[in-house]
Specification:
This protein is an alpha+beta fold and 86 residues long. Helix content is 48%, strand content 19%. The chain starts with a helix and ends with a helix. The mean pLDDT is 86. Bound molecules: zinc ion. The site of zinc ion has 8 residues, from loops.
Length: 86
């Protein structure tokens, strides 16, 4: 009998949780991200992966700013570009 009562409490608690969650969800402002924001996706010129700008590794190569998924890609791109220039 104790288990049934516990299940009922859990069920009611779950319903309350769902109700509160949906009530909060409706209050949320719809996302209107301006273009050119910090969440802009940038392409890694080394491995061609797209990463969010704020997570990207920024590096100046030959005076131009590039974004990379990791410092490793940045190092590889930098060394390859320097070789190409020489
Ligand atoms: Zn990469």
């Amino acid at each position: 009998m104790g288990i049934l009562r516990l299940l009922l409490i859990v069920f009611v608690g779950y319903l309350a949780y769902r109700f509160i969650r949906s009530a909060f969800a409706k209050k949320q402002i719809p996302r209107t991200e301006p273009k050119g924001s910090i969440d802009e996706m940038v392409q890694d010129p080394q491995c061609k992966t797209y990463i969010p700008m704020r997570q990207a590794e920024a590096r100046y190569v030959n005076g131009k700013k590039y974004y990379f998924c990791s410092a490793r890609c940045a190092d590889e791109f930098e060394s390859q570009n320097k070789e190409a220039k020489l």
